[in-house]
Amino acid sequence: MSVGLLAVVDDILSAAMRASAKTAGVVIDDAAVTPQYVQGLTPARELPVVWKIALGSIINKYVIIIPIALLLTAFAPWVLPFLLIIGGGFLCFEGAEKVLEWFGVHHEAHDEDAPRDEKKLVFGAVRTDLILSTEIMLIALTSLDPGFGIWMTLGALLVIGLAMTVVVYGAVALLVKIDDIGLRFMKSESRGVRRFGARVVASMPTVFRVISIVGTVAMLWVGGHLVLQNLAETFWHGPYDVVHLVTHAIEAAGPVVVWIVETAMSAVFGLVLGLIIVAIVTGIQRLTRRGAPAAH
Predict the structure, then answer these.
(1) Would you give the end-to-end CA distance of the chain in angstroms?
(2) Are 82 and 165 spatial neighbours (Cβ–Cβ below 8 Å)?
(3) How many of the other CB atoms lie within 10 Å of CB of 66?
(4) Of 114, 118, 140, 198, most Cβ neighbours within 10 A?
(5) How does DSSP classify residue 77?
């Protein structure tokens, strides 16, 4: 490999690492959201389903997001905020549905003991990944040097897309197989290791409940943040200005407190928006169902 090619590869990897650091928050959200999609599967199907979702994520990034993002950035950058508003609204909708399910207000009737439909499960996970991956890749794209050049930018985005997919779904695969690791520990000859394995297995239902809650909050936070930020960049500054005023007023408390408050406000905004969308969708569904018998 020539020195010039090595220098190009080094530049791409360096730029990819710097841009990836700025996507850390959304990457954590993605890793928190995904495990809930494999809950209820048999152990033998957990890793194959995670692999299918990871493959869908790569297709999202390489086939859909990166080409469209580069084209829109070059020819119609004004479209991107509107797409992110739509994506953020969808995350708010999904998050609000899950919150309503916690309170038994809104849920789909299904048999808890029946096997889950893997195709629907994978489709739902890949659909959610499309939105989260879009934000990851757009943050990475805006973090790259504008003078980088189209091919260098493309190379950096391909590296970032692969790295983020490996990180997220590697973490998800580890999470869903921790209970199996605990079961193996329980077969150890060492009493201490067996006890540790038993505690790991016993803690997993609680761990997955926490992950489900964190994933739902992450949906609302990311969705609310996307809508707030991109509304401000398009035609309505009001909600974003309120968040900015509150965070500016508590700056003296430190960056951690500011981040927590900003995150909480984005999540609350996302929940309210999501509930409004759920109400609209539910109303349309009811009108459609009433109209169907009338048509017959």
Answers:
(1) 71
(2) no
(3) 21
(4) 140
(5) T
The pTM for the full model equals 0.73
User: Cα separation of 229 and 292, whole Å?
Assistant: 40
Please tell me the distance from the alpha carbon of residue 123 to that of residue 56, in angstroms, as a whole number: 9
More confident residue, 112 or 253: 253
pLDDT number for residue 110: 47
| Spatial contact of 64 and 137, defined as CB atoms under 8 Å apart | no
Look at residue 21 in the predicted model and tell me its pLDDT.
Answer: 63
The burial class, CB within 10 Å (0-12 / 13-18 / 19+), for 21 is exposed
Contact partners, residue 2, CB within 8 Å, separation at least 6: none
Q: How far is CA 116 from the centre of its chain?
A: 21
Contact criterion met (CB below 8 Å) for 201 and 179: yes
117 band by pLDDT with thresholds 50, 70 and 90: confident
Q: Encode 197-206: b = buried (16+ Cβ within 10 Å), e = exposed.
A: beebbeebee
